[in-house]
Design a protein that fits this description.
Distance between the termini: 57 Å
Protein name: ATP:glycerol 3-phosphotransferase
Strand order of the largest sheet: 14-15-13-12-18-19-20
Radius of gyration: 22 Å
Family: Belongs to the FGGY kinase family.
Strand content: 15-25%
Domain Carbohydrate kinase FGGY C-terminal: 258-442
Shape: globular
GO biological process, one term: glycerol catabolic process
Organism: Corynebacterium haemomassiliense
Length: 486
């Protein structure tokens, strides 16, 4: 049976999965990378570490199941989206660490909605372009070198494609490419033309010659370099991580929606062949494009802090020994004891878009212990998700969910309760990497539609309306206190 490899380069780790065309995963490997936080609000990654981990994960996945590279028919790639890299064309060395999508150093003080109708994004710290501009402005001689054609820029998909297809050691083979979903997260691509907008490049001070070529998500991204793992395998699918999750959930029809619970929380709603713009703080983005076909668009609600709140309790506060312990502790108490956490570590994203907001914990008493803190953290996740679902408008019959946090059954029940909706989790919750594999398989006509994820587990709401209203009111009060600190 044909095999498809997929790289999922995420905010905290790089994973490789090898899957059959029936959706069964036959091999996988994963490596975490270091999070650098040199100043308050700054978040960085080492692009070279990410590239090393990608090669290691590819090699290990093949070796563990004794799979030959000749057995792999195609490679797909998905990635953390707005994270920005600039590197030297001649050496392949980054001139600065990758600035991560969560980073707030580039917040814009002017009209945030200035480019919303053209790009679907707000001009704030989230998109990639302001991060590229910061690097060019703060690394000595970088802007002049960019103008001279010595530097290349990209999001993580572009960085990996360039290295996978040749890199500095084989510049004749190396391809400087991105796909429409990642390009739509930069603040530089026109949603209608699917091309870089020269006026935006000029206004945001990005030399267009350093930008990659934009291609459809499902199509041709070259072949992997002769040396290293998967030599000669074609790269035929590339999607930003949240679009990959929607694709992996089979969200290829208008009004299909999903919520991903990862480092952050991300809801995407397939809005069809025409970009639709929200009045409720949502972004507009490209969901995917198949080569030779028009693009499909989506509305998106993004929350900066989801699973990273659990990591914070574990790594910075030492309240948890493992992420899984959050479920164990939270299940030991009936409620949070009045504690509410607003995790505005990077400000508040959708639907409020307040980069100046700061996190708060309110309602502490001597009665409270780490069990209540753990439960409050799970409630914060559910309440943030509720705001995004509400901003989408209407009321879906059910919410399809995926991502690492959805293995927490208590969280899923709490989410059903706080939304008052059915929550559906597929058997395979790794929809991001499966979306990349699906795109790659469709890119070489191995499959006609996204891979199957197996039967869903469902949760129904068990919470009475007054209790839900009480939780929401406490959340709104805590958010107002959070904004008072701004």
């Amino acid at each position: 049976m044909a095999l498809i490899a997929a790289i999922d380069q995420g905010t905290t780790s790089t994973r490789v999965c090898i899957t059959r065309t029936d959706g069964k995963v036959v091999a996988q490997s994963q490596f975490e990378h270091t999070q650098y936080m040199p100043q308050k609000g700054w978040v960085e990654h080492d692009p070279m570490e990410i590239w090393r981990n990608t090669r290691r994960a590819l090699s290990e996945a093949l070796a563990d199941e004794d799979i030959s590279e000749q057995d792999i028919d195609a490679l797909g790639l998905t990635n953390q989206r707005e994270t920005a890299v600039i590197w030297e064309k001649a050496t392949g060395k980054p001139i600065y660490n990758a600035i991560v999508w969560q980073d707030t150093r580039t917040n814009h003080d002017g009209d945030a909605a200035k480019y919303l109708r053209k790009t679907g994004l707000l001009h704030n710290s989230y998109p990639a372009a302001p991060k590229w501009a910061w690097i060019l402005d703060n690394v000595p001689n970088a802007r002049q070198r960019a103008e001279n054609g010595e530097l290349l820029a990209g999001t993580i998909d572009t960085w990996l494609i360039w290295n996978l297809t040749g890199g500095a050691k084989d510049l004749d083979r190396a391809l400087h490419l991105t796909d429409v979903t990642n390009a739509s997260r930069t603040l530089l691509m026109d949603l209608q033309t699917l091309q870089w907008d020269m006026q935006l490049c000029d206004e945001l001070r990005i030399p267009p010659q350093i930008l990659p070529e934009i291609r459809p998500s499902v199509g041709n991204f070259g072949k992997i370099r002769p040396r290293g793992p998967l030599a000669g395998v074609p790269i035929t699918g590339v999607l930003g991580d949240q679009q990959a999750a929607l694709f992996g959930q089979g969200g290829i029809r208008e009004n299909d929606a999903k919520m991903t619970y990862g480092t952050g929380l991300f809801m995407l709603l397939n809005s069809g062949a025409t970009p639709k713009f929200s009045e409720n703080g949502l972004l507009t983005t490209v969901a995917y494009q198949i080569q030779g076909q028009p693009p499909v668009y989506a509305q998106e609600g993004s929350v900066a802090v989801g699973g990273s709140l659990i990591q914070w309790l574990r790594d910075q506060l030492g309240i948890l020994s493992t992420a899984a312990e959050s479920e164990t502790l939270a299940s030991q108490v009936e409620d949070s004891g009045g504690v509410v956490i607003v995790p505005a570590f990077s400000g508040l994203f959708a639907p409020r878009w307040r980069p100046d907001a700061r996190g708060v914990i309110v309602g502490l008493t001597r009665f409270v212990d780490r069990r209540h803190i753990a439960r409050a953290a799970l409630e914060a996740t559910c309440l943030q998700a509720r705001e995004v679902v509400g901003a989408m408008g209407g009321e879906p019959k059910a919410l399809k969910v995926d991502g690492g946090m959805t293995t927490n059954d208590l969280l899923m029940q709490m989410q059903a309760d706080i939304l008052g909706l059915t929550v559906e989790r597929p058997a395979n919750t790794e929809t991001t990497v499966m979306g990349a594999a699906s795109a790659a398989g469709m890119g070489i006509s191995l499959i006609d539609e996204p891979l199957t994820l197996g039967p869903a587990t469902t949760w129904e709401s068990e919470m009475a309306g007054p209790e839900r209203d009480r939780l929401v009111a406490a959340w709104e009060d805590a958010v107002s206190r959070c904004l008072d600190l701004a």
